[in-house]
Structure formats: C-alpha cells, structure tokens
Amino acid sequence: MASKTSLRRTLRAYQIYGANTNVGKTIMSTIICKAFKRQFPSQNVWYLKPISTGPLDEADYRHIARFSPETKTKCLFQFDEAVSPHIAARSSKYLSDSEVRDEVLAHLMACSEAGEGTLLLETAGGVHSPTPSGSSQADLYRPLRLPICLVADHHLGGISASISAFESLHIRGYDLDTVLQFEDGKYQNHTYLQEYFEQKGISSLSLPPPPPRGPTEEEDQEIMSDYYEKMSKLDKVEEAIFSLSEKHTKRLENLESMSTRANDTIWYPFTQHRDISPQSIVTIDSASGDFFQTYTPTSKAGTLIPTFDGSASWWTQGLGHGNPELSLAAAYAAGRYGHVMFAGAIHEPALQLAESLLHYLNNPRLQKVFYSDNGSTGMEVAVKMALTASFERYKWDVPKEEVGVIGLKGSYHGDTIGAMDASEPSTFNERVHWYKGRGYWFDFPQVKMVRGKWIVEPPEGMKAEFGEVTEFASLAEIFDIQARLGSSAGRKYSKHIEETLNGLINKEGKTFGALVMEPVILGAGGMLFADPLFQHLLASTIRTSPLFPSPPHASPETWTGLPVIHDEVFTGLYRLGTFTPSTLLQSHPDISVHAKLLTGGLVPLCCTAASQSIFDAFLGNEKRDALLHGHSYTAHPVGCQVAVKSIAKMVGMENEGAWDHAKEDWKSGSRLASVSDQAVQAWSVWSKGFVGKVSFSREVESVIALGSVLAIKLQDENSGYSSTAATGLQKKLLEGSDGFKIHVRVLGHVLYVMASQTSRTEALRSIEKTLLDALY
C-alpha cells in the first residue's frame, strides 16, 4: 500500500526516460546533475537508478559518480547479466513492481528529509522496457507521476521512436517537462522534434553529442570531463534548469490555489454549500489504483498524501484509477471512430459489448441492449420500457399518468424525472418541484450484523407481518433461498405481499405497471441490505398473481404479472461479489440496468438490457410506437470499447481466482453443512473477523459487508439521511496521518467504505485497522 508520495516541496524530482536504448540517458543525466549543482550550489543533488543490469563497473550510477562527484548516487537493484531486467531477475528472488516502487518512494522521502535539493531518477532502456516482474516500466512508475525529461532518439528512425515514447507516456498521465536531445548533422532529428514539441507547449534542449572515445581510458575520462564541464555551463542548459525548477514551483502554486478557485466557480453535487470552504475541498493531483494523491499544505511528510478512495469514486471504480489497459482501449476507439451516430447503424465496440453483456448476465429472458449515458437515464429508459409494455398488454382504461410502480422503501434510481418518480418521497426529491412519486414502496426486513450475529430484522412495528428477529449462522444461510422458501418467514412474506397488493389494487383502485428494485443492497437510501428472500418472493408473487393475468401459452422468457426491473447500476458487475446480483436473488429480471463498474470508472456509459417480449411492445406501424429515447452520445465507441475490456478483465479475475482468499475467509467457521447445494456463496473482501469486531463497538448499531461493500450504521436517535452521526468518523478518517488518509462519503448515520475489485489485501487490512482504532 502506498504510504508515501513523490511530490515534495523541498525536493525537485524528475524522471529520465529514453525514447529507446542507447540514446544517451546517462550522459544527459550527468549534464543535468552538474547543471543543477551549479545553479543551486548549496543544495543536494541525487541520482537514482532503480534497476541496473550488466557489469558493475559499467553501471550508470558509477558513471555519474565519476563525472559528477558532487552528486549522491544510488542503485536499488543491480543484476550482473547485461540483459533486460525481466531476464536478469529470473535467477534472483521474484521482485514485484510494488516492491520496486516502495523502495523508490522510501529513497525519495529520505532525500527530501535531508534538505532542499534535486533528484534525477533514470529508468532502464526505453519507455516500455520490462521490469523484473515483466511489466512495462511506464506502468511501474506511473503512480509516482514524476515530471518527465525525455531523451529523444537522434538515430535514424528516432523521430518515430521519440514521438511514440511521448504518446505512451502521455496516455498514462505523465507530464513531459522537457525533451533532451543530441544534435545530429545528418538526420537532424532534433530540428524536427523541437518544432513538433513546441507546438504542444513542451520545451526542448538540444546539445552537441559527446566526443569520440579517447585512445586510452585515462584520456577518454579527461575528454568526457571536459565535455561535461562545458555542457553544464552552457546558457541554454542553465535556462533549461531554471525552467524545470520554475515548473516545480508553479505546480505547487497551482495545487495550493485550486481549492480557493474551485470554491469561487464550482457548484458541487449533493452538497450543502453553506458547509463548504476552501479548507474543506479535497484537492486531487492524480489517482492510481485505489488512491488519490491529495494536496495537503500542512503535511509534514510531503505535499501530497496518498488518500484511499473509500467511495470507489461514487461506486464506479473497479479496476483501479488510470488503469492503462482501459486508457489504451479508450484511445484506440477514439482514434478509430471518435464518436459516430448510432441510430440505424452499428460499430464493432457496441456489438461486442451487447453480446458480451448478455452472455455473462446468463439470463434467458434478456435479448436486447439499449444504450444510454448513465444510470439515471438507463433507469428512465427501463421505466419507459416496462410501463409501455404493461399498458400495451392490459389496455388499462386509466390515464397514463396514473400508472405507477411497485418498489422498496429507501430506494433511489436517479435524478431524471421518471427515475425520480419511481422512488418514494425522500431528501433527494422532496424539494424538486415536478416530483410526483407514482407508486407504492414496500417496507422490508433487513440483513445486518449486530454484536457478532447475522440477523434478519423486520421493520419497526411490523413483527406481526414479518415475524421476529431471526438469527443466522452465516451469510450463506441467509442466501439459501430455496431452503428458506418453506420457512415461516417465507410464508409470512408471501402473505404480506399478496394482501398488500390486493388492497392497493382492488380496494384503493391503484394501477401498477412495473416492479422496480435494487437487488440485495439499496445504495443511496443508506446501504440497506434487503432480505434476499423477501425480494425473491416479491418478484415471484407479482409474476404469478391473478391480479395481473398472464397471456395464454406464454413462453418462459415472456414477462408475466408485471415487468421486473433490476436496478444494478450500483450492485452489478461484481460489486457484491457476483457478475449480477440477480444470481444472489435467484430471480431473473425482465429488464436490468448496468452502469458504474461497466467501464471501470473511466467514462460514462449505461446499458439497459430487456427481454424480447418487452422489445416487441414497441413494434408498430408508426414511429410514435417506437421507444423514442436517446441522446447524442448513445453507444459512443470509446465507452463501449472500454466496457468490453472492463468486463473481460473482471471475468478473467474471477476465473483466475483473484478473490478466492476472501471467499475462503468467509467460508471458515460457517455451518456449511446446513446450507443447501443451491445456495449462492456470499463473501466480502472485508475480512470476516474485522466485520465481527466492528459490530461490537459501542458506537455501532449494525454493520454489513458483501463483495467490496462495507457499511457501518452508527448509533443515533435521529437516524436518516439528515443525521450527522457519521460525520465525526468521516473527518477522523480524512485527517488520517501524514502517511495515509481515507476519503469516504456518508449517508446520514451510515458510513460506508467501498473497495475496488483490484484492491490489495494489505491496503484493506490497513484500512480495517484504522477503522477499528477510530471506533474503539
């Protein structure tokens, strides 16, 4: 887990990349080191070579020490064989990227604590030279986001290699501060590249190449010493050094002013601005993996502090911030298509995504995919689909605006008008002038852990309808739906649902056109963990109720009763541990909505999947019979291509057993013998023992954990979204320490922490310890 950061007020740190091998990185580094020492004689200059291969007497850091003796040099990992690091490291202990990065960060910290100065970090070979683990070094060092000095290739073909190197770095979020290049009278790459990079606002420094080698080693050293001395004194070298130093200062000044400028210009979502000040705004310089790098002017350890993204960036983050595979997928589609209109056309990414999503949803009811831009509009589309299909089938003699939906209390489906109307009155919509709230919302029993015990608890005052609090030995037993169908709770649930529907329709004259629900966990409503048995029975009762007569001879894929919509925007795509939470409910929806993790948190996109029988309701002789919904960026190729890659990555992780250790943790100690073969295994990346300890805190009313979701409900007499009970814990986590912070969101008296699907185990264990320290 990252506990240090590369940007420090007292340390100007730069990374030297080469456009290729043998382009003179070390020669340029020597010149830059000597020039920095000349410009800032009272300050330290450090040179770091993280990985070196080849004979020790030929090592780059020894060359620096020989010709720039005032520079403090270091190599972290030396391999004797003069081959690529991934080959040289085979004979040694496996060296992971995180180990290399941690050692680099530790050295940066040590240098910054030694006083003001400059550090050059020289990479090995070209931009994509392999690391000891075999990955690209451009990906290994990306989380550091050090400003880049790129040594261009002055050889034949070097223009292409230099521009390709720049684009590889640029697409990974690196900032290129300057281009360093040797002059070559024959190929004159430096002339072309200087103009090319100037057009992009990037400065360049061209220098005469080093002289030919001397006849003896002693004469060669003397020749090179004279060369370095002359080069480091050149006016244009001094100007380049001043420019690099100035960019470091301006980067800090920009970070320092951002929160004030934002306070003057930005209107934030879901925010009461009376509570906002420049001091409360979190300034994010960059993000990598699960962490933001946040600016902290008062920090003792550094100017940027690694801050865990505890809300998974509003539940979108699944494969790590700045995932290079997703970035490349986006760049590919942007370069191939840009954006193309979609009505009556097709492009490969949209077709691949539709086929892939339908395949992995593994729902025989779903046959069609409709594209939109986010979860709210995807739910708007779903409600339109369902209500139209019901109206076409039942031909109700009521105004269309009187047809409502059936849902769950505490539900939230988005901010568009139709999606908003599908939720009960709440803080989210009570001040919205056009909100009508068309429907009925069932209260439901909730799953939670209280003092080490998993329970299903009826809503307050509804024990007669749902029964007493029931204790379970494990989550697996709660999700053993087939075994629980014949239980007392199952019979009570069915009776309550049937009697309620009968009263609403036959006695109150209500008309409903769809069942809309978030499977298993209701997110924005306060991370409410619905008893999966209740949701299963709600769907099956509505599908079979004589209140909604089914068509004769309907196929198994044809919707019956009312169309069932699953809002999987938050809960889908492994957020709760399975590709679709419908698996946990053992119930197939007629329409399902997918966003957030769909693109791994990179770009907005939503898919609304529907059955053929829903689709057929929009077939007609006139255009007005069609689903007249869409927007300019429907099925934009960039989003579709990223989603294809995102789904493939997550499915691959499951197949490779990426979460097996967490599954084993949640199996241990459970009475699995009492669980039927049809039960779906429930597990969490948050350790079982930790969740139990949290539940015993005096400040905690209950806790839930499933998949990557952890939600802690704190004790509060005034519970609900307007509660401030969780803000104290939220502030404590954000204050953190100089080395590590946790950024989380709260929902009233509920504090939740969201991991990504790629969260490292050691990071999660550190967060668990921090939470326990804060609660006890």
From TrEMBL:
Entry keyword set: Aminotransferase, Transferase
Chief site of localization: mitochondrion
Biological-process GO terms, alphabetical: biotin biosynthetic process
Gene Ontology CC terms: mitochondrion
InterPro entries the record matches: Aminotrans_3, Aminotrans_3_PPA_site, P-loop_NTPase, PyrdxlP-dep_Trfase, PyrdxlP-dep_Trfase_major
GO molecular function: adenosylmethionine-8-amino-7-oxononanoate transaminase activity; dethiobiotin synthase activity; pyridoxal phosphate binding
Subcellular locations according to the entry: Mitochondrion
Database matches in CDD domains: DTBS (cd03109)
Pfam families noted in UniProt: AAA_26 (PF13500), Aminotran_3 (PF00202)
Domain of life: Eukaryota
Name of the molecule in the record: Adenosylmethionine-8-amino-7-oxononanoate transaminase
Species in which this protein is naturally found: Hyaloscypha bicolor E
